[in-house]
Amino acid sequence: MAFQFNFSIEEDLENKLTSLDDGSCVLESQKGKQDNRQSTEHPGLPRDHSWKRSSLGNAASSENTGSPPPIADRSDDPEACKHQPSWKPAKEHAMPKDVKEVLENTVLEMLPGTQHANTAVVKTVSLKEKFPGENIVSKSFSSHSDLIPGVYEGGLKIWECTFDLLTYFTKAKVKFAGQKVLDLGCGSGLLGITASKGGAREVHFQDYNGLVIDEVTLPNVVANIPLQDDGNGINEPDGKRQRKSEVGQEICKCRLFSGEWAEFCKLVLREKLFVKYDLILTSETIYNPDYYSTLHETFLRLLSRSGRVLLASKAHYFGVGGGVHLFQKFVEEKGVFETRTLEVIDDGLKRFLMEMTFKHPS
Ligand SMILES: C[S@@+](CC[C@H](N)C(=O)[O-])C[C@H]1O[C@@H](n2cnc3c(N)ncnc32)[C@H](O)[C@@H]1O
After folding, report:
1. Could you give the C-alpha distances from 73 to 56, 76, 243, 270, 296, in angstroms and in order?
2. 178 DSSP assignment
3. Cα–Cα distance between 220 and 234 in angstroms, integer?
4. Pocket test for ligand 1, best of 208, 302, 349 (most atoms within 8 A of CB)
5. Polar residues: which segments have biased composition (predicted)?
6. Residues 320, 83: contact at Cβ < 8 Å?
């Protein structure tokens, strides 16, 4: 399978991650910053936002499942509210009428098989001027950061574990046909794009940063997926792109969202016809323990009872402190999901593929 990308991969910019002997890695930019990470200011936004105040909780779950959530409401739990991610409102990014426009100023490159590529960095100097409100590219470059918690969560580059999951899809012959899929923390959106190409009925893409959705995810989706409601063929620039899906395959419906996870949940659960996801795909999203609560809550609210999460992660992220074992421990303590290790990739930088399913599917 080949993907088309709207950016180029620069080997020399690649990988600000330093490998350590035990297979874990450290984000260079995060060294020594651990204690400062809560200090990110968001002018004009409430600083004490928490899941409790998001009012997602019981109303959403009873509306959409007809049953109460299988864990106690944690809104009175000070631990649960102490370290919440910064508040970033969620919004849906409409699929433009003229999808050709999306690709107008983009450089498309082919990435042959997924297993050969490594971490990529988006080359988007021009973006600095384009998005003064969310100037994450220059912030990221100037602070030499792969991510800035609460500001930029890393979606502009493709992280290694995405490729691990893609390889696993092929190896394990993961079935997407007819499924409703969420690519959570999508960045480039390769996982969702693959699901779509595999026949998923509907794929939703979510990223923290709107700029990532507009400038990376959306062009990649447009470049790779035959989209619904664009029957005029404009989604086929230069005749290079295969416009049609395989014969007989349904055209997948794609929707894109930005915003923090609790806010994203609120947004999608508000939709009366919302049907939960059969499959949630997520790569390199458990690096920050401060986000575990909302991430777990997101799985709980949005995954169908018989669905599963396929999660890929490095063993440990030193700078921010998260990692597989910490997350697994967190999940175990919650008692809602079962986790199963699908694969350990140990080529110097230990990485894990995990499956999460409800302990009590019905
Ligand atoms: C390290 S990047 C990984 C991107 C992509 N999945 C990959 O593997 O290349 C982490 C992603 O998770 C998302 N993310 C992290 N924390 C988040 C939060 N609290 N709320 C919403 N999205 C978050 C960001 O949007 C970001 O794209």
Report:
1. 11, 8, 47, 19, 13
2. T
3. 15
4. 208
5. 53-66
6. no
| Closest ligand 1 atom number to CA of residue 161 | 8
The angle subtended at Cα 344 by Cα 84 and Cα 12, nearest 5°, is: 75
- The owner of tokens 């988007």 is 124
Interface predicted TM-score (ipTM): 0.99
C-alpha 102/C-alpha 116 separation (Å) is 27
Nearest to 57 by CA among 361, 202, 199, 269: 269
The model's pLDDT over 306-351, given as tens digits with 9 standing for 90+, comes to 999 999 999 999 888 999 999 999 999 999 999 999 999 998 889 9
3 state DSSP class of 218: helix
200 contacts 180 by C-beta, under 8 angstroms: yes
Cβ neighbours for 236, distance < 8 A, ≥ 6 positions apart: 243
Beta-bridged to residue 355, according to DSSP, are 310, 340
Let me know if domain 3-38+62-358 sits in CATH 2.40.50.140: no
Q: Is 183 in the pocket of ligand 1 (CB under 6 A)?
A: no
Return d(Cα 138, Cα 324) in angstroms, integer. Answer: 30
